[in-house]
Every structure is written in C-alpha cells, then in structure tokens.
Amino acid sequence: MKSPSALLLALALSLSAVPAYAHHSFAAEFDGAKPVRLVGKITRVEWTNPHTYFYLDVVDAQGKVTNWSVEGASPGALSRRGWKREDLKIGGKVIVEGYRAKNGSNLADGRLVTLPDGRKVYGGSPGDGGPGDDGTDHGSLPGTSK
To answer: Whole-model pTM above 0.90?
Structure first.
C-alpha cells in the first residue's frame, strides 16, 4: 500500500499541472504615454474573469463610428468598488479615460470610467503597476468613488 505522503505528493503535482489564468501587468499591454479619452455608447459587455471588457461605439468629429474595447479589472474588484453588472447597459453612454494598447489596436485600459449615472469609478486592476494603481481596489485617481 502506498504511503499517505506519496499520495499527497501525487495530488500536489497533478494540481500544479492545471493551467492558471494569465494575468499581465499594465505595461505588458498598454502604453502609459498614450492617454485616450473615449465617449461612446456601450455595444457589448463581458463581465468575466480575469478581466472585464466592454465595447463602445465612439463617433469622431467626421461622424465615423469606431468600436473600442475597454479592459477593466475583474468582476470581483469592480463589484467591491460599487460597480454592478447592470451599470453597463447596452446603449448607455460612458466616458473612459485610459491608455491605448501598445499594438495600436482600438483597445484601451479603462482607468477612470464615468458610468451612465455620473459616478466616476476606478477601472484598473489592483497591483498592475499602471497609472493610479496603489495596490488597493479603489486606486489613487482623483475623483473616483470609494
């Protein structure tokens, strides 16, 4: 019969083989020297781990519509800040102050989001090293609700 310690070792090794969700730092994907301000209507919401995403139709000065994806913290982190899934309704207008993706795509990290009801909420991931990150759920950006 196998010893209990051998069984525990086998169990520990098998669990360590399970892939973990990859989490990246702000600087891995976004450029802190490329701020962006987006005003648009929500077209889609993905309230999933490890990051939430919502999509906006942004209309430029010439009337051209561009769909942007905005990355936010995990649903749990956003919930602790007062966000609810229902705050991001299709067709609702939001303002995003964030930073563009390094690859130039229409992807932004949503650091400060003004929700349709006027609340300003920190959207960054705690510990990602990006602007406003102080390691807490609420961040250190001025004007955000706690």
So the answer is: no
